[in-house]
Amino acid sequence: MVPLLVFYLHIVAVAWAFTQRWQDEGLSEGMLAVFFVALIFFVGWSIVSFLVRLVIPPAGFGLLLDRDALALLLLTVTEGFFYYFYLRGDSGAASGGNSVVEGPQ
After folding, report:
1. Is residue 103 part of a domain?
2. Using one digit for the tens of pLDDT, what is the confidence trace for 52-88?
3. Residues 6+ apart with CB under 8 A from 13
4. Total domain count for the chain?
5. What is the CA 46 to chain-centroid distance, rounded?
6. Of 21, 32, 99, 105, which sees the most CB atoms within 10 A?
7. Please, are residues 48 and 74 in contact by the beta-carbon 8 Å criterion?
8. Which domain covers residue 74, as residue numbers?
9. Residue 92 falls within a domain, yes or no?
10. pTM here?
11. Domain-embedded: residue 52
12. Domain membership flag for residue 100
């Protein structure tokens, strides 16, 4: 059940990333966002699975949280932090990138 929720969350995130980039930059940027999210997901999943398999026994922490589900949860949390800092944008860009207040000379 946990992997299903994680995969659903990733599908929603891919749709959000595509829609946001498509509206801001165009179709090609939307497709690049989809490929970027997929790349981060697949590479991150393999790395986190490798690390979890080194530490956690195969049974994991119960029926719902085996080590594969735990790896997906850790990947989702890690991706959440990454996307938060990567996609949050630059606060100076909203004001035209000019943070210096110009007054009368």
Report:
1. no
2. 999 988 887 878 888 888 999 999 999 989 888 876 7
3. 37, 83
4. 1
5. 15
6. 21
7. yes
8. 2-86
9. no
10. 0.73
11. yes
12. no
